[in-house]
Amino acid sequence: MDAATAQSLDRAAEIVSRHARDQARAQTLGLRLSHVTAATEPGYQHYTPSLSTVLAGRKRTLIGGDDQVWGREKFIITPVGLPLVSSVVETDPQRGFLAARWQLDPNLVAEVAAVMPRKAHPAGRMDRLGMWSPALADAFARLLALLDEPEHIPVLGPLISREIVLRLLQTDQAPRVLAALDDGDPVVPRAVSLLTDRMAEPWSMRTLAAEIRTSEPTLYRRFKEATSMTPTQYLKRLRLGEARHRMVVLGESAAQAAIAVGYRSVPHFTRDYRHLYGASPAADGTRLREQLRRGGFGGLPGSGDAQPPPPSEH
């Protein structure tokens, strides 16, 4: 990492450490800040379209079959709602674990992309993790700096937000950002919306493609480009995350949760659950409910952003 980028990310980390518990102010900039003092166990989160960063420490992120450990040298773009499993695996001795997630506004992305020339990008598999450029790191640090001057947010916030989108579209992650826009034919956002809102239905590639009026190959290709998962993998992750939430927060049994999210076979659900979370649904649910009762969560049992305490989310 070059010196200018490192300096910008150091500045960003200092700001996050000061404001991590002021989520209301952060939300005015589309930010969600995290400060964790110890490693956490793997658990489910559902990210909205966003730029996710780690500013101190390291985390593990599992998206589909893509399992990576990363820190402040990288970032992740999620252009559509994305179910993933993550955990804090390393904390900085002085700062702990610091992270910031910035909401990506698809309308803003479309607006900036419309006036930028489209660059050709090499064909083939794109790395899920993006590399910071000095200009992107500087713009992101300046956005965070507005937390120290909230009176300037209404004027400078929109300007810096546009600059961040512009800088993102100049990185190797530009195809992932643009994939969700689909040039006026939003195949991926429509598929994500259907799978999320109607996850209990017996979806197949054929029925999903028919519902959004596209071909199966087009759906598969665009969905994989945007999410690193097939629609089938995406639906499985959604169902398992929601089932975990229902068992832990709502107190449902494994069988009740499995049926509610669309599994037709409880043994099938148990196998998938154990493969992802490393324990049976009954054992995992009992343990996490006890943690919830004691108030001891490090941040990950819920099915969405609202479940874990905001300062512990990562």
Automatic annotation (TrEMBL):
<dbReference type="Pfam" id="PF06719">
    <property type="entry name" value="AraC_N"/>
</dbReference>
<dbReference type="InterPro" id="IPR009594">
    <property type="entry name" value="Tscrpt_reg_HTH_AraC_N"/>
</dbReference>
<dbReference type="InterPro" id="IPR018060">
    <property type="entry name" value="HTH_AraC"/>
</dbReference>
<dbReference type="InterPro" id="IPR009057">
    <property type="entry name" value="Homeodomain-like_sf"/>
</dbReference>
<dbReference type="Pfam" id="PF12833">
    <property type="entry name" value="HTH_18"/>
</dbReference>
<keyword id="KW-0805">Transcription regulation</keyword>
<protein>
    <submittedName>
        <fullName>AraC family transcriptional regulator</fullName>
    </submittedName>
</protein>
<feature type="domain" description="HTH araC/xylS-type">
    <location>
        <begin position="189"/>
        <end position="287"/>
    </location>
</feature>
<feature type="region of interest" description="Disordered">
    <location>
        <begin position="293"/>
        <end position="314"/>
    </location>
</feature>
<keyword id="KW-0804">Transcription</keyword>
